[in-house]
Amino acid sequence: MSWFKRVKEGISTSTKDKKVTPDGLWYKCGRCKKATLTSDHVANQYVCTHCNYHHKIGSREYFEILFDENSGKELYAHIVSGDPLEFTDTKPYTDRIVESQKKSGLEDAVRVAHGKINGLPLVVACMDFSFIGGSMGSVVGEKIGRAIDYGREHKIPVLVISKSGGARMMEAAFSLMQMAKTSAKIALLGEEGIPYISLMTDPTTGGVTASFAMLGDFNIAEPEALIGFAGPRVIKETIGKDLPKGFQSSEFLLEHGFLDFIVDRTELKTKLTTLIQLLTEKKARQKKEVEA
Amino acid sequence: MSTFDFEKPIAELEEQLEKAQQIAEKGKVDMSASIKELEDNILKTKKEVYKNLTGWQKVQISRHPDRPYTLDYIKGIFDDFVELHGDRNVKDDLAMVGGIGSIEGKTYFIVGQQKGRNTKQRQMRNFGMANPEGYRKALRLFKLAEKFNKPIVTFIDTPGASPGLEAEERGQGEAIARNLLEMSKLKVPVICFIIGEGASGGALGIGVGDRVYMLEYTWYSVISPESCSSILWRSWDYKEKAADALNLTADDMLKNGLVDGIVKEPLGGAHNNPEEIFANVKKEIKKATKELRTLEPHDLMMQRIDKFSNMGVFNEEATA
Ligand SMILES: [Zn+2]
Fold first, then answer.
1. Would you say B153 and B189 are in contact if contact means Cβ atoms under 8 Å apart?
2. CA torsion sign, B273 to B274 to B277 to B279?
3. Among A59, A194, B7, B76, whose CB has the most other CB atoms within 10 angstroms?
4. What is the pTM of this model?
5. Among partner residues A78, A180, A256, which is closest to B319 by beta-carbon distance?
6. CA B237 to CA A2: how far, in whole Å?
7. Which fold has domain A57-291?
8. Distance from the CA of B91 to the center of ligand 1, in angstroms?
9. Domain range annotation of chain A
10. ipTM for the whole complex
11. DSSP letter assigned to residue B293
12. Cβ(A15)–Cβ(A163) under 8 Å?
């Protein structure tokens, strides 16, 4: 598929490869510790068949899960990070970028693709946590902005899948302004009456939560994801006591009115299809075809 | 008045001046020559010190406990100010103040974070860290301004949005995000001033303006230098380095095209002559309003959106 093109040779991008047992046949769940055949685990979209734990996955996996066979085309793949402030902490920012690109096989922390889901057009921007913690710098802001513009120009719904530790500190105020930029783009999309769906996955925090992630016409989340503005550690330090169980989880957010619904990854495509179908009054492909 | 390390040369001269004045008062010796000399020297030293401030030193001045806060600017600049309270949902957030006032017969809506001067006030104002209801109160006032076609002025002075259990329960992220979206499409002029600390999303949450000005000795960034030090260097000891690396001063921000202008402060900082800084800010408000009022409401909105859309530095490789 087209979005594999940029993946450098000999580098695996998939997070699924990291937790398989040496023979590669079995996947051991990080939570319930039970083993599943890797092929079954992948077939179940990296959700534990025993305890429903949603293993963290990246843009490659989400695109595979969502787009109908071969219909996804990557957009804006060639936008890469600059170093506007010549930032150096314990190492230069440019070194971090190069290292992260090598390690993850990704250009930055978000990828955009458009394609069909059950025959319905959709543009998807999906964040990758494996790239500097899914932090938002200029590239992330620009690509998400362009994904939204793409939806506006072509009059097709936009889905953003968030997974982020927050701001890219090495871009300082440039990083901050991506919050304003992406939110402004969503405002323009909204003026055209085009649906914007925000899917929050584990974890969605900081500046991403305080901008495009919370601005969906429909805010949805995977189960048991950490979603919040301030990180749990910061809050714990501020209030000086332990946080209640389940605080800042998807279920907590649903209870407090900030999510429309929680969706199992295995149900995601079907549920999105229904939603888009209802909004656009376009007919999706037949169910039989869908499952084929 | 508290003194920073870098102000010590000034403080020493001021002490000498005081002594000279005391001797002069006793009337036995003519001190006028040396007093004049000391005064000149103080002015010269002040100019020297404040010309060469580091990023971290500016951060310190931005937090000076005697600096004017939002309500001081409001009282110093606007006539007939009427404070408006509450978000109509949860409560009145005292860390975010707002209301309506006028300059030379022209009405404005005004919103800003408010810090406290003593321990009791600081707690009452939550150190200028607003909760979701503060951002929602701000948004309510922005919408009122739009309804009545009045320009908006915001004063930004916050170490960040409040981190806490209740803030998360009530959707701090959503509240800030909503303001970013709604502010970007307001059909009236929005003029913002960073008057002290401009920390992160908590600052930006009332900072999506047609014109964003920083006062000379303020800072604006995605994180405070202390937190940046602790995260990137894993120690609190690199705050000076972090302040430099973050490019958070008014000069840096203007150079990087992330703010629209700098308002000059009195020598030694705003607290040395509040009337002067009020006058400078008032002048900018009047000038910006006049310019922005010439635009059609839709063009005004699009210009604002385009401005923020163009922020960011990246490389776009030729398509392979
Ligand atoms: Zn499991």
1. no
2. negative
3. A59
4. 0.94
5. A78
6. 47
7. 2-enoyl-CoA Hydratase; Chain A, domain 1 (3.90.226)
8. 43
9. 22-55, 57-291
10. 0.96
11. T
12. no
